[in-house]
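Dear support,

I submitted the protein below through the web form. The confirmation email said the job was done, but the results page showed an empty box. After a refresh the structure appeared. I'm attaching both so you can tell me whether what I see now is the final result or a partial one.
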Amino acid sequence: MSRPRIELRGTIGWGDRVLFDVEKLVLEPPGVTCVLGPNGSGKTTLLKTLGGVIEGKGAHVEASPPGLERAYSPPYPPVDSGLDGWSLLSIATGSPSPLSSPNVPEGVARALGYLEELGLPQGGLSRPLSRMSTGEAMKVLLSGIIASRAQALFLDEPNGHLDLASRSRLYSILSRASVERIVVVSLHDVGEAAQACRRVFLLSREGPVAWGEAGEVLVPGLLEKAYGISFQLVELRGGQRVPLPLLGDSP
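What the results page shows now:
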């Protein structure tokens, strides 16, 4: 299979709203890419544009190989959809329903492996999503999307409803997926981005601030420009330096 590659340039926006311009953004494996920025900076619009959910406003997305399958995951599961866990897995993976098949479809089988890793027992999938916790339903959605045939995954705040242990396991799954596939996530936790992501596209409400390797982008000066608050680098065991927001403070 050819190595997936996506190049984005042009104007990001939706409807009558213009958010920012992108000179050139190239996405390819390996490594997880993170989109960071405050509320209203355009993270979701960017991911939907890259994922093919919307055409955007003047954005040009060039994907290769031709016909590259892309998948977008929203920051919340469809808990009011009337679906149960099995149905959502079938839809997210693009597979036949496992309940109507003599054998478990390949995509669903992969998703079940991810669910086990995320700590959700298979026996709970017969419940309607409305009877699951938001975190449980999110695990079902993410497991299905990651197990799909898509070679480019765009996950909007995938960690938002997960507990800390589940977040850690999710990042391990995404790291493995990103060896051969494009994996892009939007996050609000700068510390998690520093530890889990290889590259970062940093936004402010005025537009892009920086794009590059996480260690070069996630520094106090650039983060303060994006968020308008102060940051301090904290050294973890092993020597990695991670930015920590000084809440309640301002530059």
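Response: this is the final, complete result; the empty box was a page-load delay. The CA atoms of residues 70 and 154 lie 8 Å apart.
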